[in-house]
Design brief:
It comes from Lederbergia lenta. This protein is of the alpha/beta class. The protein contains 13 helices and 10 strands.
């Protein structure tokens, strides 16, 4: 395993870490035994950082992480998130009383005394502009309930707003070959301020595995079925905001990145890891096989300057104008 520092949190985290949205729910059927085996396998391979949220399976992914990390609390870092189980537009949802309640519930499910990293879960831009929630998090940090805090953001603008607050230690962003905008300003600014960058949806909801055809049908409880057009939450969280058919077509044009590499998926992950500003990627998983496949990105062949330029032009000429939703 290879590790990078997570900004100035004091944590060194595995370059390939994992998100637990898929094992909590909203990605189709889950199997707790398979999930726990996969978590154990990842830890055995040196993965020491996992991202979750209180709304992933209504706290179920937090409970699974508690089981998998029992007795290893000092070795395995967990980041969780809050706010989306309430009215995200209401200021009351970010009051000290509300956030403390969210925090204590997550602590109980995770069976931890303090949270390694507590993240605001894609709040509205107005909440970040107001800034009162950061004072709440400062208070919880002073009380010892959280060690560090950060924000999971939807847009570059939101990320830049967060960077104004020196106590924000991490940003979690959507970043992949289909979502390259953070490269322009946000990632360099975060790097300059020593703020850690966690990359979610590094495979664009699976599009960058190259395994889908346009006639694929997702399960009814999979967000790729019910949120393709942003029906339930930000459209960018599903297929990078491109829509499924468009995304499949674009992924077919990108299959060349797997030439001389293990797979299209590991190549897409390698592209992200080649960016010096990135602390770690947090792809999802449901079984050991998916853990194993994602870990292969660690030793994947790096991209040449010619390849990087080709990917950049592809994004500008073929992808960027088709992305829907704010980003």
């Amino acid at each position: 395993m290879k590790y990078r520092k997570l900004g100035n949190t004091g944590m060194n985290v595995s370059e390939v870490s994992f998100g637990t949205w898929a094992i909590g729910g909203a990605w189709g059927k889950t199997n707790d035994q398979e999930s726990l085996k996969a978590l154990d396998y990842a830890i055995d391979q040196g993965v020491n950082f996992f991202d979750t949220a209180d709304v992933y399976g209504d706290g179920h992914s937090e409970e699974l992480l508690a089981k998998a990390t029992n007795g290893k609390e000092d070795e395995i870092f967990i980041a969780t998130k809050f706010c989306r189980s309430g009215d995200i537009a209401s200021k009351e949802n970010y009051s000290y009383e509300a956030v403390r309640t969210y925090c204590e519930a997550s602590l109980k499910r995770l069976n931890r005394e303090a949270l390694d990293l507590y993240q605001i879960h894609c709040p509205p831009t107005d909440i970040l502009k107001d800034g009162a929630v950061f004072e709440v998090l400062d208070r919880l940090q002073a009380e010892g309930k959280i060690k560090n805090y950060g924000v999971s953001v939807e847009t570059v603008e939101e990320g830049l707003l967060c960077l104004v607050n020196e106590n924000v230690k991490t940003l979690q962003v959507i970043f992949n070959i289909f979502r390259q905008k953070p490269l322009e300003i946000l990632l360099p600014e975060a790097y300059k301020k020593d703020v850690g960058i966690l990359v979610r949806l590094p495979l664009a909801s699976g599009l960058l595995t190259g395994k889908f055809t346009k006639d694929h049908i997702f399960e009814e409880d999979d967000h790729r079925k019910f949120n393709e057009n942003g029906e339930s939450f930000n459209v960018g969280e599903t297929f990078a905001g491109l829509g499924f058919a468009k995304g499949v077509g674009l992924s077919e044009q990108l299959k060349w990145i797997s030439e001389g590499r293990n797979s299209m998926a590991t190549a897409a992950l390698r592209w992200i890891l080649d960016q010096k500003e990135i602390s770690c990627i947090i792809p999802g998983f449901r079984n050991i096989e998916q853990i194993d496949e994602n870990l292969k990105a660690l030793n994947e062949k790096r991209f040449t300057d010619i390849e990087l330029n080709k990917i950049s032009r592809f994004y500008i000429e073929n992808v960027e104008s088709f992305i829907r939703g704010p980003y």
